[in-house]
Queue: 3 jobs
Job 1
Amino acid sequence: MIELVEISKSFGSVRALDQVSLEVAPGEFVAVLGPSGCGKTTLLRAIGGYIAVDRGAVRLSGHDVTKQPPDARRVGMVFQDYALFPHMTVLENVAFGLKMRGENKVTREQKARAVLELTGMDGTEARKPSELSGGQQQRVAVARAIAHEPDALLLDEPLANLDRNIRLRLRDELRELQMRLKIPTILVTHDQEEALGVADRTAIMNHGRIVQIGGAFDLTMNPADPFVSEFLGLDK
Amino acid sequence: MTEARRYRWLTAPAAALWMLGVALPLLLILRLSVYSRGEISGARQFETLFYQPETWTLDNFVQVLTTPFYLNTLAFTIGLAVTSTVLTLVLGYVVAYAVYRSSPAGKVVLLVLVTLPKFTNILVFVYGLKMILGPSGFWPVVAAEVLMLLPYAVLTIAAALEAVPFSLVEAARGLGASAAQAFWKVTFPLSLPGTIAAATLAILWSLGAFLGPYLLGQPAQYTISVEIDRQMNHDLNWALAAALNVVLLGVMAICGYSLTSIRRRLA
């Protein structure tokens, strides 16, 4: 369970997050949708612990982690550029989180192999990230993010750099995987089709606030304001 | 491939420059190092250089490799170079890391500060150091060498660090690595090839150390380069100077080759 309680964050005079509250239930998949600069990436980085919020609280599985650094939070994050370690093999990448948490070599390789199988990347253990295609790198990044069984999965535009065909397939695979693992998940995207197509609920952000949150049907039938209907392309 | 071959002639100017500026002088030094000078001294040795019977000898090398004074000087030169290189790398890495983590404006300020000594004439710079560092000796020599090498090391290492996306560090932190672990497991190994490139530059440069030892050192701190200068300009024994030079070149080649192959294996 991910709980955000009225978190705010300003960069100089810009309010990137303005009293944002959000709850993601265990096993729920929430998409955060909005134009660039709306604060959606800041929201994700606040949950991951990469930025300290000015006010409010972040709770993961009931624990208050507001003041904790990223390594003290049990979070799995997939970055837009995947951020795979280029000097490590696929297996070493996926086992990294387990290694940092003190698992012994046999256990962590066993777990890493299992996760790679889950993401359909078994057989690539010994390769370097540079030897993989974009879609394969994305799957390894997902495998790495879930290997240490995190309390939350955070996805920062994980499909943005992929071709349309593979994007749709990976989107569905991601959702299937998330449903199997029952990890509360937040997907940040600027693509409304991606958000509405995959998430249980979609939060629409603008100027650091969540303007409206709901399922695809809710949002399209009852847009809260002109911004939402325009952003979802309902005006046409 | 064929395209590349077709335009190979475009490398001709560079090749000509290399032949004239590097290969030819090197060849002359090699010849001079096995030259038996007899009674001739100074620049006149060049008049009878090639294909003169009875002017070929290995005596110069025998002299260099059997005289304790030259061997000690060589050992000191290597020791000084290794000391300067290690200190340059440690200091250079710290400064380069500060550059890496600075804001864009901070980067500019730091890099200007680091390269500032290079805007001074090198002699003025070393004499200035002499006034600050006081009596001559080993550590003033090392200080001068390190300060001369530092800008190159910082620029090389900073470039290597800048190529490491910070998202990799964030990913490592998110996976449970402390700041120190993220540095040693991710940032450092990825910057290592560039750091070794800086080491190569520093060791080759400092093996040829001349100004620091000459101006800030006692005779005990004289290097092979200082001795080469003495042989050329005081004893007018160019042949021996050339032999000393060839031995130094050999040491440089070994250092350069081993560091480069380590870097290749890492990259």
Job 2
Amino acid sequence: MNMKIDTETLWLVGGVLALLVGATVVGQFLRTRMRGGEGLKTVQNLNARIKAWWMMVAVFGLAMMTGGIGSVILFGLTSFLALREFITLTPTKAGDHRTLFWVFFVITPLQYWLVATGWYGLFAIMIPVYAFLFVPIRSVLGGDCDRFLERTAKIQWGLMVCVYCVSHAPAIIFLGIPGYEGQNGKLLFFFVLVVQISDVLQYVWGKTLGRNKIAPNISPNKTWEGFLGGITTATLIGAGLWWATPFTPLQSAGMSLAITLMGFAGGLVMSAIKRDRGVKDYGTVIEGHGGVMDRIDSICFAAPVFFHLTRYFFT
Amino acid sequence: MTAELLALLARTISGANVRWVDCEPDTKQRIYFANHTSNLDALVLWAVLPPEVRVLTRPVAARDYWAAGRLRRHLAEKVFHAILIERKRPTAHDNPIRQIIEAMDETGSIIIFPEGGRFSGPDPMPFKSGLYHLALKRPAVELVPVFMESLNRILPKGEVLPVPLLGSVTFGTPIQLLDGESKPAFLKRAWRNIVKLRDL
């Protein structure tokens, strides 16, 4: 839990800040070049995204500085907000009200408490086993069997994606990696950086070179060019950051590839849900990005895989 | 101060996404009329108005709910200044319309739920005639349709503890009673203006 801020951490933070400064300069330059129309809209959205990135980096940086507990609280709140957006979008009924109260105010905090205490055994099964059983039991007491399976499945899915999966990100801090004690904060930083930079690079490659749509029915903005360019460059960046991780450069590349592929898949799956519900974004809280869920969809899918790969091979 | 705090709390719990569609916030005298699905409705609609509009706006609320218990009564009377009306047995001298008109002449705008109760069917219930009588008595006042969504999922009928989902509040184009418009025609038109906002 004890985390020291070493030179490597400073390099990571400095790199991200340099990147943001660069992006801000480019964004402002592009704005002066645009005269209107579709291009101007894209640049305005780009600048809103960059501005939001400053905020998100500041919040994440602050959480990291407090050591492990700040990150647990930050990801806990993120889960809470994502779940809020997710459940809002999926029709539940009055009979689910009490179940939802438990889900938001008991199960979600409990999962993050398990992260904070490092109780791995229960952390790994609490939601897939106990919450899985509890949700239908509590709902059946509500006495409404209309679309029962559908409603229950939606609540369970929301819990799995928004809470269980996301909670694997801060849990990285509590992995005991021989020779890397007290440095896990950097590994969490590495993970979040690779996931998010991959999203950004897919966006950049897609916007500049994107021609061939990869899944036109699900996410019209995702292209083969964006996918290949983004995954490749993000993997290279991840490999280049090996010095901050317990991995060798080659291992770091492999981990980054797994992270970026899962992140891409997560974005695609969460888009399919949005299309099904007829909305473009999960929410409106982060300007330019949409909701919290729109920003963390890739983290949801990448976190458990990265966590278990690291746990299996390096602890 | 307490009013600011309560408004902030209401906005946080309801996570309300507020949209003004062909209608701008304004301090002129208005009647905001909305669909009614949750006890949170009056509080949330009041809370999402800009502060300078909010101080001039009083929700019309059921006395049987808001006067029960000291906390509710305190909030209704001292904090958001609800106009508490008798909806069960209106009598000649306990006439809600007169009471509302008096309050309007005194402070300005009001919030009203013309269905006369909470219903959570797919469509709002047909409106009771209160809105028509108000429009007839004060024809110059703008009537602003407001559609409130998901609040019944945050706090359904009969529940005490809210679940923090995201509600939304949509303000639509103001309407007025037309010359010679009949009561049923006006109420139907007002009703349609709310439903229209849902399908936006």
Job 3
Amino acid sequence: MTEFLSGVALIGDPVTILWIMFGVCFGIVLGAIPGLTATMGIALMLPLAIQLETATGMAMLLSVYSGAIIGASVPAILLGIPGNPNAIATIYDGYPLTQQGRSAEALIGATVGSFVGGIGSLILLALFAPLIARFTLRFGPAERAALALVGLTIIASISGRRLAKGILMGAFGLALAFLGPDRITQTMRLPLPSVTMGTPLANGIQLVPALIGLFGISQALYDISRVKSGTFTPPQVSFRGSIPKPRIFVRMWRMMVESLGIGTFIGAIPGAGASIAVFLSYQRAQRRRAPAVEGGEAPQLGSGALEGVVAPEVANNACKGGALIPALSLGIPGDAATAVLLGALLIQGVVPGPTLFIDELPLVYAILGSLLLANVFMVIFQLAGISVFPKVLTTPVPILLPLILVFSLLGSYAVEGRAIMAASFNMGVALVLGIIGYFLKKNDYPIAPIVLGLILGDMLEQNFRRAMRLARGDYTVFLRSPIALAFLVLAVVSVAYALWSSRRHSDDSDTTHGEADD
Amino acid sequence: MPLAWLVFSIAYLLFSLTIEERRMPGGDWDPGSAALPTGVAVVMIACSAYLVLKENVVGARDSKKRRAVNGESSPGETRGRLFGATERLIIMTVLLLSAYVLSFRTVGFVITTTVMLLMLTYFYSLGDVRWEPAFKFAKPLGLTTVFTVLVFHLGVTALRWTRYFGRIWELDLLRSRPVSALIGLVLWAVLLLPMFLYIRPKLRRRREAASEAGALADAAQHRALSRAMILSVITTLALYLVFQQLFRVALPMGVLG
């Protein structure tokens, strides 16, 4: 009870609440601008978050995360352009609703769906994360090393058909993580030591500049092609006669519960991604809806049905809570955005896993509480901003990109705060990785595996070496421990599934090409 | 790209082989500092070699077939179109960002940020990097920088006085970070608002005059320039307030220091 009250006190002060409100607003605006993702938003806000108290900083980042997810539905509904790939399913019914002059109805539906998904998955997170974390108390170095390996196999699933590229990027991330001093023996691992020894590179590559470079600068460079796309006339949003009645949503309860389950479950599987969840929930809603339509009651999904907006939005937001389950309990990020959140925790010296639920219980309650508050503010701001969104969508790219670029560089500078030399070096790291990230994106290389490698590299190396030492060099230690063995099997299954899935997709596309050619 | 990765991977393998093999105290069974980097290098070489083979053998065969079916031209025939407006903008951005990072400490935050923001916004608004307008905009660039420096100095001096009075009157509130940032915000808003209200119609008139004279390129240039000038001044000062005043990040003053 004392821990719970301490947690409430951590997020209950007005400053934290103001940061949550700011985070939600920033996230919604960011998510509403096509091309800008939640991951990029969290990476941009990271330097500010680490200047704040741990709980306040995390609350702000989680608010950005929450806001960006709901924000992505705005351009999907109003323009038929998803703010990020996870809002694609929202277009199928959201945009037809806008074309029918019912955009306010669609936006309200998306808000309600997001709230249900957010709160529902939060409850599941609060129930399951401590249980999993308690189980991890049984883990030794061998189990932890195997767990890190499972985390790295997420690369297989997030790389899709680009498996070799994904593994290469993951290995590159590990190579970056291994730069600098070896934490066990303090051996220097630096290329050209005569040149690099006196530079801040001797301490290794910091996570924040790397994240900012890979997600912020590279995306901004990539988006330069959009500066010539011109302006457009935003749709008018009118409330008249289009506010859905609460009973319409009450009638959807079964579909919402299903979407919540799908979203939380898929979100909790590291690397599965919300895009799978939104399509599954949409498909489910479609099946559930079919008989009613035959009776001629309402439009079918795909032609402007509110269910087609609510179901994917519930699943999309439920993924957020689901992705936090492995992140907080095992230290394994569920997606790229939670990888950055995990990075924020590690920078603050907080290690996710069982110790988090024992030593930092107030912080856990603060994280859960801030998610709750973020969801509440999300509803308020989303509803209040419905008439403003069309204006946000017209923000010219020539104004937006310079702001992102300068904020990215200054953000990576701010990590070191008062050490000007190291701080300037961080700007260089962010810029170099941003340029590398741009070329990688341009050549269809996935970026997220680099982050996984950077985050999990240390955990993998330290635990692997400790396990080998304790087992006196016997590699079968990973097979003798049932938990480690289970993780290894999971890793193999994960890679095998990704390979099978990738092959199936390429077979499909070959068939399609063949048909097209014919 | 895969070939570049292959070269990098081999270089990384060579580097990992030079890492001193040190083991943890009393741990003869520790694989050592170089074990994992070497393993990673091997994985990187395997993946990049696979990609090189795939793109050069399978990829070349497929693209040849696709070109034959679609009647597309070979890559060599399109080489002349490689540097379009977008590529020029990207190169300019990378060069500007590099210059920004390199001169940040010596020239200082205020000047570098104003110049970079102005140039980026201006060229992005034009949608291309054109040398003639680039030359023409040297004067507004200089004026905006001088103006930002002046306004910045006025604000910083006022903030110093506020803190000074806070100390002698023993008013901690005047010395607190959020209040200091708020005072700065109000002060700069008071300074900038009348100036923008005065300048904006002038800029608009020039733009309209250019538009009426049929010089649409000039009108677009005026529009880009006014947008860039306003954005660079406001953003530079706002970033100073957030990073230096609110979060106490030591932003270098460089030549202004």
